[in-house]
Specification:
- The complex is a heterodimer.
- Chain A contains three helices and seven strands, in the order H-E-E-H-E-E-E-E-H-E.
- Chain A is of the alpha/beta class.
- Chain A is elongated.
- The model of chain A has no long low-confidence stretch (mean pLDDT 86).
- Chain B has a single domain (48-390), classed as Cytochrome-c3 Hydrogenase, chain B (Orthogonal Bundle), CATH 1.10.645.
- Helix content of chain B is 50%, strand content 12%.
- Chain B has a three-stranded antiparallel β-sheet with strand order 1-2-3. A three-stranded antiparallel β-sheet of chain B has the order 6-7-8.
- In chain B, strand 2 and strand 3 form a beta hairpin.
- In chain B, helix 4 runs antiparallel to helix 5.
- The longest helix of chain B is centred in the first third of the chain and has 29 residues, at 93-121.
- Chain B starts with 7 loop residues before the first strand and ends with a helix.
- The model of chain B has no long low-confidence stretch (mean pLDDT 89).
- The chains are: A alpha/beta, B alpha+beta.
- Chains A and B meet through strand 3 and helix 3 of A and helix 1, strand 6, strand 7, strand 8 and helix 14 of B.
Chain lengths: 160, 391
């Protein structure tokens, strides 16, 4: 059995196991697998991925603002399994006002700054984060720049 | 503060040479021992991700040089590969191998800068001059091929900006032959130097579990014995064809990370020489009028080429709808671009997962309980560039 074939079968096993955790949707694009999970089961899914399937490396946490589509804020997590050299993208949606999702800091220390960055630039709250405050922008900054309704250019300053 | 009147709060940075840029570290001291260490970042935040959303893919490319300005080409490579993955195109072999050569030269240049400054931070003055002497040769080679030194911006979506100049490969060969000899000079200054060993041995020890918990990558992870190298684990640009080793450390301390980076420079030399041996003649960009610019001479004489050029400049490259995550092994660790395309010529969302940002997180953990002077060694050993942290 060739190497790509083997990893595809392994990934199918992972996805089948994940379906018991309420996976809503799954797909593959350009050989990259992704799954969408409900917000309230995110931590459970990530824990299963980390402990049962060896996805021990939380590569990235980020978000996408899909304005005007609803639900607006999509959270995107990338995890990597060192043993199988496999990448998996996990998506979920933030809800409420302010938008919120559960934090992954109990699972990975790496989630700390990554989530703070998403909070800073998107205004998404992470429930259970120990130290949720702005990280890149000054503490008194108004607005969240990576939201689609945040302007790319600043106001016209009167230079006189 | 009032609970601990004996504690002193010191601001290290943001303008301090040993913080390698505008990093501010708020340190709570008891005597000389760091009790708490809180990095404060964002002084160099330029909003590159937001800027990318308002630009075509070609216009995004020069922004990527500025993410880690000590390894401009490594960032270009990460970005063009991500866009090419979305487009589903593969560059011709000559372009692919030239990319490998430039990327490995960038790795050496970045590691040399790290070596010089890291040693300088710890009081060794001479390696800085030696390392910059060799780095200057690399910078000249970048300049010859791309016109830029720190910001070469030589890679293009679908290929390269132009072919190599006459005699360039000979110069690179000469560099790769002499460089391992020069490395012996650095090693005589540091590797067995008792002061260097006492400043770095058992300083900032990271266990395998901590490396995984903090999602560390690059030499910081490899120093602790995890052979996590994207070039090996998830090859791109044909790295699987090259014969090279992924050096790993055993103790996970500052000294091991030093040894790992030193060995990586030698391995990069090996890769460059192999790539030069295999470098074929041929095209340097994909033959696709919707992706690559036509030849300038054709633009002046042929109407089709003029229209092609006009459309690529005015409209940009139309990238199919979808999303990709593409990671590469940048000199400082895993550099990944996550791009969401809505089918237009501008990225709907472009995310740069930079190694410095994620790796810097571990600083507080490493520094707490150690001496203030170790903090400087620890900032150096993580090898950060603040532009890479803040984006």
């Amino acid at each position: 059995m060739s190497r790509p074939e083997e990893s595809r079968l392994w990934m199918e096993q992972v996805l089948e196991d994940l379906s018991s955790h309420g996976v809503l949707e799954k797909g593959v694009f350009r050989d990259q697998w992704w799954v969408a999970v409900p917000r309230d089961r995110l931590r459970e899914v990530m824990e299963a991925l980390r402990d049962r399937w060896g996805f021990r490396y939380l590569s990235d946490v980020t978000a996408v603002d899909r304005l005007p589509k609803e639900p607006r804020f999509q959270l995107v997590y990338h995890v990597w399994c060192h043993e199988q050299s496999a990448l998996l993208r996990v998506k979920t949606w933030a809800a409420g006002d302010p938008p919120a999702v559960p934090s992954l800091t109990p699972l990975w220390s790496a989630a700390d700054w990554l989530e703070r960055e998403v909070y800073d630039l998107f205004g998404i709250h992470f429930q259970g984060h120990p130290d949720l405050r702005r990280i890149l922008l000054p503490p008194d900054w108004e607005g969240h720049p990576l939201r689609k309704d945040y302007p790319t250019e600043g106001p016209d300053w009167d230079l006189d | 503060m009032s609970q601990h009147p004996e504690r002193l709060i010191v601001n290290v940075g943001p303008q301090h040479p040993s913080t390698h840029g505008v990093l501010r570290v708020v340190v709570e001291l008891e005597g000389e021992v760091v009790v708490r260490c809180t990095p404060d970042i964002g002084y160099l935040h330029r909003g590159i991700e937001k800027l990318m959303e308002a630009r075509t893919y070609q216009q995004c490319l020069p922004l990527t040089d500025r993410i880690d300005y000590l390894a401009g080409s490594a960032n270009n490579l990460g970005f063009v590969l991500a866009v090419e993955k979305l487009l589903g195109v593969e560059v011709p072999p000559r372009a692919r191998l030239i990319r490998v050569i430039i990327a490995e030269m960038t790795r050496i240049a970045s590691h040399l800068f790290w070596l010089g400054t890291h040693a300088h931070d710890l009081g060794a003055m001479t390696p800085l001059f030696y390392a910059f002497r060799e780095r200057e040769q690399l910078m000249d080679l970048f300049e010859a091929v791309a016109g830029g030194r720190l910001f070469p911006c030589y890679f293009r979506i679908g290929g390269l900006a132009r072919d190599l100049p006459e005699g360039w490969t000979t110069e690179v060969r000469r560099f790769c032959r002499t460089f391992p000899e020069k490395m012996k000079d650095y090693e005589t200054l540091l590797t067995h130097n008792p002061i260097w060993i006492r400043r770095t041995r058992d300083v900032g020890v990271l266990t395998v579990d901590e490396v995984l918990d903090y999602a560390l990558s690059g030499p910081v992870a490899r120093g602790s014995g995890i052979a996590w190298d994207v070039r090996r684990a998830d090859p791109y640009c044909g790295y699987e064809e090259f014969d090279f080793q992924v050096p790993v450390g055993q103790n996970g301390d500052t000294y091991d990370r030093y040894m790992v980076r030193m060995e990586e420079m030698r391995q990069s030399c090996r890769i460059i020489l192999q790539a030069l041996d295999r470098l074929p003649q041929g095209d340097i960009a994909v033959d696709d009028p919707t992706v690559t610019y036509p030849k300038k001479t054709d633009v002046y004489t042929k109407i089709e080429s003029l229209i092609q050029h006009f459309l690529l400049v005015e409209e940009g490259i139309r990238v199919p709808e979808g999303e990709v995550f593409h990671h590469t092994e940048a000199p400082k660790g895993e550099l990944a671009f996550y791009i969401v395309s809505d089918g237009t010529s501008k990225p709907f969302r472009a995310r740069a997962r930079t190694p410095s940002f994620v790796n810097l997180q571990v600083l507080s953990k490493l520094a707490e309980g150690r001496l203030l002077s170790d903090l400087i060694a620890l900032i150096g050993t993580i090898d950060i560039v603040l532009a890479d942290v803040d984006r």
